[in-house]
Design a protein that fits this description.
Layout lengths: L4 H18 L5 H45 L17 H44 L2 H9 L10
Helix pairs in contact: 1-3, 2-3
């Protein structure tokens, strides 16, 4: 259930680019927000990895039981049994449960990355806007009081 390789690379590259751009932020308030965001996301990743390691066996067992219940459910397909595959193969069910647990873990990590990407993008765009506006008032005032060009003396 992972993303295609081009989308995965695009997502990782965009997050790395935003992290790099966030290092150039000059406003103390925005810098603090970036640091808080980095700490929050890193803590969430560590917590998810710890929970994954600690509860892996119980998650696999719970998912295996769900797969057994789904395989044993009465189906509305009117196909003879001898034409299909065995839905109760224990090795297949265990492998499928392990794949599902790993995919769920990867999806939770992707959600954390996506949250960090959206928040960093917002901060970087706001910072870029503020940086563009930083000298606008000063330059407009300088043009207004420029003594080299006096329109009334011409």
């Amino acid at each position: 259930m992972s993303l295609p390789i081009d989308q995965e690379l695009r997502r990782i590259f965009e997050l790395a680019t935003l992290r790099r751009e966030a290092q150039t932020i000059q406003s103390p308030r925005q810098w603090r927000r970036v640091q808080d965001l980095k700490v929050r996301c890193q803590d969430a990743r560590v917590k998810e990895k710890d929970l994954y390691a600690a509860r892996y066996d119980s998650r696999v067992e719970a998912r295996r039981r769900q797969l057994i219940a789904e395989a044993g459910a009465q189906r509305r397909e009117f196909k003879p049994f001898w034409g299909g595959a065995d839905r109760f193969n224990p090795a297949d069910l265990l492998r499928q449960a392990q794949r599902d647990v790993r995919d769920a873990h990867e999806r939770r990590l992707m959600v954390i990355d996506e949250y960090e990407r959206r928040q960093l993008k917002e901060v970087v765009e706001r910072s870029a806007g503020e940086n563009r506006m930083r000298g606008v008032a000063r330059s407009a005032f300088a043009r207004a009081v420029d003594r080299r060009v006096r329109p009334f003396e011409r």
